Amino acid sequence: MRPASPILPRVGGGGRTPPAALLALAVALLAPPGVARAEPFARTEARADCAHHDPLRRPFFGDLHVHTTLSLDASTQGTRNTPRDAYRFARGEALGLQPYDRSGAPLRRVRLERPLDFAAVTDHAELFGERTICESPGLPGYDSPVCLVFRWWPRLAFFMMNSRASASSAPERYAFCGPAASGCLEASLTPWGMVRSAAEEFYDRSAACAFTTFVGYEWTGAPGSNNLHRNVLFRNAAVPRHPVSAFETPDPRDLNRRLLRECIEGLEGCDVLSIPHNSNLSGGLMFETVDAAGAAMTVDEARERAALEPLVEVMQHKGDSECLLGGPTTDEECGFEKLPYGNFAGKYVPAQSEPVRQSFVRDALETGLRLEQQLGVNPFQYGFVASTDTHLGIPGAVDERNYPGHGGAGTPAGNELPPGLPDDIEFNPGGLAVLWAEENSRDSLFAAMRRREAYGTSGPRLVVRFFGGADLPADLCARPDFVAQGYAHGVPMGGALPAGGQAPTFAVMALRDPAESVALERIQIVKAWLEQGEARERVYDVAGARGRAGVDPSSCEPHGEGDDALCAVWRDPEFVPDRPAVYYARVLQNPTCRWSAYLCNAAGVRCDQPASIRAGFEECCDARYPRTVQERAWTSPIWVEGGRGR
Amino acid sequence: MTPRAATLALWLLLLAAAPLPYWAVEAGRQPVSHLAVFAGLTSAAVVAEPSTIAAIIAGLFVSQAALYAGLLYVLARALVKRLATPRARLLAVLAGVALVVAAAALPIYVTPFSTSGLRGNLFSL
User: Fold this and answer.
1) pLDDT of A5
2) When you count CB atoms within 10 A of the terminal residue's CB, does the N or C end of chain A come out lower?
3) Among A146, A348, A416, whose Cβ lies nearest the Cβ of B49?
4) Is B55 near chain A, with CB under 8 Å?
């Protein structure tokens, strides 16, 4: 282990103005001199060249998981914001939220302090048409009992219609959809058209390249209420006529095949990827290696999965999916933002499901190493992003101090705000996706996703770079050409290093969020590897130090010290040649108050004084949920290939 | 007023207005008449579009509505049995009407599925 470079600044936890050394590091991290080896991306659409183009790439912050009123589970909770509204919000405009008064004026308003660079509205494709029919007098099915329930008692429809669409291994369309679901498929063109037109309207095709949108949707398969959801994102405006929903393809392998056939192979200019999310709620099925009949994953399936699923969403409103504490995992940071149940049914029937290790991404990385040895392809070579999964149509609203709730599967606020906390206490404000790209255009950002040069944060806009190579300079942290050297001598996050006899070296640098007063605590490198077929994992602190700062949960006042920037060059001291391994960096902020603590404190809750706990605030004193958090970033991994059969 | 008529009248008033706790995915407090509407429409939805979850929800409404209807009838009968004269029974029924009028104005119902608010009076349900 190598400590952080001595040139790095060390400041108290409350310092707001970056010192000169931080600026120098930012220059090294973001816009260094030197010659890039990075390959340019291909341009697949007509647009102006971006005025700002950095061959060494810049971090762009966005949200790739956003629901609006077009999602049935959002509209039935009172969400009225449309895809247009969501993009307006992402670009910095204020937006109203439910509940609404009798005149239709929203009783809450929110606004991002900093606009996003990109966003994708990803409404549930399932029930697109059904919802349209139930709201459109004159369409066949409008007067059906199901549509009456939808219009009269939307909260009841939330349970009845969602469960039919996404809790079964073989979801069936409603009869009112007509023969071969033709009525619902036709009706789905209206919301799908709204998604597409909003993405086009708000995509900045000028040279300013101020904001990028992606056409997308969520595929919502959840057999037995085990979540297998994916967000499907298209590279440009060339997209299929209909989104492929779980009604047509209840098996995610079929989704991949349909996307290959109907988009990549079947539609000129079309390119697509899908991002699994909430594996923590999958009951162990998200990264299953055999199908329901017990047949093992084939080479073709592994190839399709690797090609279409370069990224996984590691964290969002409904919890963290990185890793689960317990068993062979002793990493205490795996306790971060965990849901106490392991699938959707477990939320309502607590005995139904405990979280299982197989649902978590770290286990999938280890399984992927094993499958690569068996199949020659790693189907779980996942890079990481985070997002919100907002069902209020407010992408990027990740501030712990102003969390208006999830808006979907949690506490409804359709007609009036529930007393107390705005949502279930196990939820959280979600995170952001960060993409290292040359410019803020669809092609450039999409290429970043495909090569996994991406990372996720739990909200703060931490800037993190991570390179791996056999011969990265040991003094990289002190050099102004950190990035150029990283590209020249190694691979960035998301890349792979060939097998070799030499221990790999990793260079990782992190800057705190410049708009927040919270300093960094430390950088860790998480390693997982195979040893005689058995998965092993270890976490190394490589920069900074633990326990230098804290926060008073009753006042949310921080204390102690931290760093504005951290950097380390680290060589794996336990590397064994030809043993496959995967490494990723995790950057931890100093502790801060969790969203619930801000609200509980403001409500005067004192857990040692029961009289102070008003209705709706009972969960403030639930010991399962901490009052403080350590916000963080997770880089995409770097893989070190191994010899086969080791 | 005959005992039979008084029992029937009181029972109908209780069915129409007595706020009763129930649970069907969400917890609420509404009169049996409203539970019956829920039961009827969700049952119709199940018949038209069979589904396990919808059947469970409809079953919860039907069973609670039936249970409460029976209990309220027993309650109405027990009340009437304690009223010996036609005049007393008439007064009891009038008192019931007064209670319904009061209920109509007070937000004593909890309506998790309503589009008009989480709490409401009899006519806003």
Assistant:
1) 36
2) N
3) A146
4) no
Residue A644 above 60 pLDDT?
A: no
- A100 or A459: whose pLDDT is higher? A459
Kindly state whether A354 is in contact with chain B, defined as any CB-CB distance less than 8 angstroms.
no
Torsion over CA: A583, A584, A587, A592 (sign): negative
Decide if A551 contacts A609 (C-beta within 8 A).
Answer: no
Length of chain A: 646
Predicted confidence (pLDDT) per residue in A312-322, tens digit? 999 999 999 99
Q: Let me know: does A584 contact A384? Beta carbons within 8 Å.
A: yes
Q: State the DSSP H helix or E strand holding residue B96, giving kind and residue range, or none if neither.
A: helix B86-105
* Antiparallel, parallel or unpaired: β A581-589 and A632-635: antiparallel
Interchain contact B70–A (C-beta under 8 A): no
Q: What is the pLDDT of residue A7?
A: 33
Task: Report the residue count for chain B.
Answer: 125
Give the domain range for residue B97: 3-124
Residue A157 has which token pair? 């429809």
pLDDT tens track, chain B, 125 positions: 899 999 999 999 999 999 999 999 888 999 999 999 999 999 999 999 988 889 999 999 999 999 999 999 999 999 999 998 999 999 999 999 998 888 888 889 988 887 666 788 887 76
Q: What CA–CA distance (Å, rounded) separates A568 from A586?
A: 12
For tokens 């703060």, what's the residue?
A460
Q: What is the pLDDT of residues A493-519, one digit of tens each?
A: 999 999 877 899 999 999 999 999 899
Helix (H) or strand (E) holding A22: helix A20-30
Query: Is residue A30 a contact partner of residue A17, using CB atoms and an 8 Å limit?
Result: no
Task: Give me the interface pTM, i.e. the ipTM.
Answer: 0.88
| Chain B CA closest to residue A156 | B113
Task: Identify all chain B residues contacting A166, using CB atoms and an 8 Å cutoff.
Answer: none
Give pLDDT, residue B70: 97
- Nearest 5°: phi and psi at A571? -110, 135
Handedness of CA A80, A84, A87, A92 (dihedral sign): negative
A535 has a chain B CB within 8 A of its CB: no
Nearest CA in chain A to B40: A145
**Pick the residue with more confidence: A344 or A595?**
A595
pTM of the shown model? 0.92
Asked if B93 and B6 touch (Cβ cutoff 8 Å), the reply is yes
Total domains, chain B: 1
Burial label, B105 (beta-carbon count in 10 A; 0-12, 13-18, 19+): exposed
Q: Does A174 touch chain B (CB under 8 A)?
A: yes
Phi then psi dihedrals of residue A101, to 5 deg: -85, 180
Q: pLDDT at position A35, please?
A: 44
| Closest CA relative to residue A625, chosen from A589, A603, A600 | A600
**In this structure, are residues A431 and A387 in contact, taking their beta carbons and an 8 Å threshold?**
yes
Question: What integer is the mean pLDDT of A210-220?
Answer: 98
* Helical (H) or strand (E) element with A442: helix A442-450
Q: Nearest to residue A140, comparing CAs of A104, A110, A181, A99?
A: A181
**DSSP code for B117:** -
Strand duo A311-316 + A272-276: pairing: unpaired
pLDDT digits (tens, 9 = 90+) for A175-190: 999 999 999 999 999 9
Nearest by CB: A415 against B47, B53, B114 = B114
What burial class does residue A495 get, using C-beta atoms within 10 Å of its C-beta: 0-12 exposed, 13-18 middle, 19+ buried?
buried
Question: Min CA distance, A382 vs chain B (Å)?
Answer: 35
Tokens of A595: 């969203």
Asked if the Cβ–Cβ distance from A159 to B53 is below 8 Å, we say: yes
Instruction: Measure CA A35 to chain center.
Output: 32
- Residue B54 contacts A where some CB pair is shorter than 8 Å: yes
